[in-house]
Fold this protein.
Amino acid sequence: MVSDIENIVQALPENPGIYKYYDNEGTLLYIGKAKNLKKRVASYFRNDAQHSSKTKVLVRKIADIQHHVVNSERDALLLENALIKEHQPK
């Protein structure tokens, strides 16, 4: 059976952008940037042995993923920075 998260990851575009992870209560857990959204987000759900314990805990808490496509990797960096300042996720 395919989970909702797997469906979300599979539907992500291969474009630059930012991604936001949310828990079951809708709390923003993490904001990240990517040159390729699909590859970057999928990397969190593969090769579990290579992740730090902090990342493993984060991945277990993810209940929803939202993204925003931008024109370039530079735009993703700028948007990520602005969103982190605005929302200050843990």
Observations:
- The chain has a mean pLDDT of 93.
- The chain is about 45% helix and 20% strand.
- Residues 73-87 form the longest helix (15 residues).
- The helical segments are 4-11, 37-44, 53-61, 73-87.
